[in-house]
Write a structure and sequence with these properties.
The structure holds 2 protein chains of 2 kinds. Chain A is α+β, with helices and mostly antiparallel strands. In chain A, about 45% of the residues lie in helices and about 15% in strands. The longest helix of chain A has 23 residues, at about 570-590. Chain A starts with 9 loop residues before the first strand and ends in a 10-residue tail after the last helix. Helices cover about 15% and strands about 25% of the residues of chain B. Chain B is built from 3 helices and 9 strands; from the N terminus they run βαβββαββαβββ. Chain B has a two-stranded antiparallel sheet. A two-stranded antiparallel sheet of chain B has the order 3-4. In chain B, β5 and β6 form a beta hairpin. Classes of the chains: A alpha+beta, B alpha+beta.
């Protein structure tokens, strides 16, 4: 194994209960599992008991980077693994910004945050130590942006640090609150913000500017140049120009854009909230994560005149992407671009996940429309398109003034279980879905993907390929195989840790080449094998924590609203789930019997 | 003779690829040996500041050096004679724009030599090499 492993084998443990920290050399893990997801799941397994309360001190937040982080273009992400307070199982979330390179050049391959503090604190990690600080002055602050600004001005390290922090939502344990990174990026999904909140950890700052000597600078520079040219090329162009918001018009045209709680796949106001229109009217700046030439982060500027004084304005910056536009835009019937941006802004300030928030509010709107709940519950009239009231409702989810909002803060599954309307409550394994109603493969992948995310296996693009080719829908067995194979390969990208927007650049041979330039001797076929193994390791943990895939509710609404490939059949999805369950349960059994390596069918 | 210039920092997306390119010249990866520094102008929504030697004709850093380790470069700026440098750090304090970086591994300053290697890695036309008279 390459000596490069030593550049990332240091694991920093931060124990918030005892306000202590220590470093362990985990060359064993980084040699075997590369880094990122591969290593993070092992660290999680070592720390978290199967029945641990996600909001208790036994839970941990593991952050991990990989051998290519800060070394090759677009290896710019951090993986976090923790037990999700949204569904109670092991979960994973990724973020960009400066977090990956800050951890890298502070000299760590992973950080394990464990225990919980008695008082609100924040922690500052640098190349030598961890400092704990009283967060009393930051706790309860209305905007996560302000928290970021205060810390930015109070601390050193501008340009080579990350400021990860939670908003009020995390403090108040909204189960889908996020952890914001550099203001506009997030560990968005699965409630890492609430895990931080339960630990009374307001912020985690990491800074570092170490360097590492390359084993073979000449080869490295050649491979670097080659990959750099590709990252600028056509494979990533759309992310640079319009950003992920380019998808809105594409999906609307297909009839795959979830609208008004997925009662339709087309939105009459799509053009108004499209990537094209946002770029023409509101785009103010494009930003990049460290080491990424693409700059997919799109910020809109909105100018607002104060109601009480003419010519008195304020300008606010709002990040936009496909997911918030879907969840808080078309899915709530909002075509007023200004209103949509104001709604995204409050979601940012409060620190909730935009997808879950949008889906929860869409369910509440329909439930109110059908008379399942009343204005007494919602406090404001939730009506499609009425963004002003949605802005208020987002803060109610965080402040939880009544039983209804206390329940909404637990997610859509919990809300529908209590008030009714499960048929139109969109969630797989309690996780609200992303915005691609493309077809049966996508919905199946939400059921069987580790994160129940569109990014697990990228099945939304498999569906779109089927639409384009007009080819027959694969059998459930074939479909399961396709989705699992893709998710397995992505475990390698997630262990490097490469942004999935660069998946077209980092094919099997490019990854092999990059690793070889750093002295690794692994070949592409071994990487594929390792990807499968990491896939199984991860899913088996979830099974051993009690996840029962066959018992998962498939939301009726997802089956009733036609996709570009017709109506999704429940039987089809169930068959895929069965296939998946058989595979991962078999592996889980092998782990239980202490023999996971000998999985022959995998 | 050429000089490195920041053409328009408003085009900067904050990717730091120039910073990494600079460090790579020495057979390292990371930021610690880079002569360029990029940081936000007070929140990323305001854009970025690209801090790098502007090739002064009469550089204060050279005047501050007690051992004459900073030799005037033709076309502006300085060249560091590492053998002479004692690592006192006076040059760092002498530069008002903060363009004298510090290599904390070798305890020596890092100052742009205007080689232009980084320019090839800027995807958005922020930086360039220009001819000086």
């Amino acid at each position: 194994m390459s000596s490069w492993v030593k550049t990332l084998s240091r694991v920093l443990y931060i124990d918030l209960s005892r306000k202590q920290f220590w470093v362990e050399d985990r060359e064993d893990l980084f040699s075997k599992w590369l880094g990122g997801t591969g290593v993070a799941i092992q660290l999680y397994k070592e720390e978290v008991p199967r029945r641990a309360d996600p909001l208790g001190p036994e839970n941990v937040a593991v952050f991990a980077i990989g051998p290519l982080t800060g070394v090759f273009p677009m290896a710019s992400k951090v993986v976090s693994i923790f037990k999700s307070p949204l569904n109670g199982y092991v979960a994973e979330s990724h973020a960009g910004g400066r977090a990956a390179t800050a951890i890298r050049y502070a000299g760590y391959g992973a950080i394990v945050v464990k225990g919980s503090s008695d008082i609100p604190i924040y922690a500052i990690v640098d190349e030598e130590k961890v400092r704990f600080r009283d967060a009393g002055a930051l706790w309860g602050m209305r905007s996560s942006e302000t928290v970021g600004r205060v810390l930015r001005e109070a601390l050193p390290g501008a340009g080579f640090r990350t400021i990860m922090r939670i908003g009020r939502a995390g403090e108040r344990l909204v189960r889908y609150s996020n952890l914001a990174v550099e203001t506009y990026r997030h560990f968005g999904r699965m409630g890492l913000g609430a895990v931080f909140g339960s630990k009374k950890l307001k912020a985690l700052i990491v800074m570092g500017r170490r360097g590492f000597k390359l084993p073979d600078p000449k080869t490295y520079r050649e491979v670097y140049k080659e990959i750099f040219e590709l990252t600028k090329g056509p494979a990533t162009r759309k992310y640079h120009d319009l950003g992920t918001a380019a998808n809105i018009m594409v999906l609307d045209k297909l009839g795959a854009l979830p609208t008004r709680n997925l009662s339709s796949g087309r939105f009459e106001g799509a053009r108004e909230i499209s990537g094209e229109k946002l770029a023409e009217e509101n785009l103010s700046r494009r930003l990049a994560c460290t080491a990424c030439p693409v700059a997919c982060i799109h910020l809109a500027a909105i100018r607002e005149e104060y109601e009480d004084e003419k010519y008195f304005y304020k300008i606010e910056f709002v990040p936009y992407d496909h997911e918030p536009i879907y969840a808080l835009g078309c899915n709530l019937g909002i075509s007023d671009r200004y209103g949509l941006l104001k709604l995204i802004k409050v979601v940012e300030d409060e620190g909730v996940d935009s997808i879950s928030t949008g889906v929860v509010l869409a369910w509440a709107t329909e439930a109110l429309e059908r008379g399942i709940i009343t204005l007494k519950d919602t406090l404001v009239e939730l009506r499609w398109g009425n963004w002003r009231n949605y802005v208020k409702a987002v803060s109610y989810i965080v402040l939880q003034p009544n039983d209804f909002y206390r329940t909404l803060a637990l997610g859509v599954e919990e809300a529908a279980a209590k008030y009714g309307g499960l048929d139109f409550a969109l969630a797989y394994n309690r996780v609200e879905p992303a915005g691609y109603h493309t077809g049966p493969l996508y919905h199946s992948s939400l059921a069987i993907g580790f994160r129940h995310s569109h990014l697990d296996g990228g099945a939304y693009s498999m569906d779109q390929n089927l639409v384009a080719s007009g080819g027959p829908t694969p059998s459930p067995e074939e479909a399961a195989k396709m989705i699992i194979e893709e998710e397995s390969w992505r475990q390698i990208l997630n262990s490097m840790v490469i942004c999935l927007f660069a998946r077209g650049v980092y094919g099997r041979s490019a990854v092999e080449k990059a690793l070889r330039s750093l002295g690794y001797s692994i070949d592409a076929s071994k990487l594929v094998e390792l990807g499968k193994q990491i896939y199984l390791e991860k899913h088996a943990v979830k099974i051993l924590e009690g996840f029962e895939p066959e018992k998962m509710r498939i939301p009726r609404r997802a089956l009733e609203t036609p996709t570009p490939l017709g109506n999704v059949s429940e039987e089809y999805v169930r068959k895929i789930v069965e296939h998946y369950a058989k595979l991962v349960k078999e592996y889980a059994k092998k782990i239980e019997s202490g023999n996971p390596e000998k999985c022959v069918s995998c | 003779m050429k000089r490195f210039v920041v053409v328009d920092s408003n085009r900067c997306v904050g990717c730091h690829l120039c910073v990494y390119a600079c460090t790579n010249r020495f057979g390292y990866v990371g930021m610690g040996k880079s002569a360029i520094h990029v940081r936000s102008a007070g929140g990323v929504e305001r854009g970025f500041v690209v801090v790098v030697c502007r090739a002064c004709k009469d550089p204060p850093c050279a005047r501050a050096c007690p051992v004459n380790a900073l030799v005037l470069r033709q076309g502006g700026g300085v060249i560091l004679n590492t053998a002479k440098c004692i690592g006192c750090g006076y040059c760092v304090n002498a530069c008002d724009i903060g363009a004298v970086m510090w290599d904390s591994e070798f305890m020596k300053p890092v100052i742009c030599t205007h080689c232009g290697y980084c320019v090839g890695f800027c995807p958005h036309g922020v930086i360039a090499l220009e001819e000086v008279r």
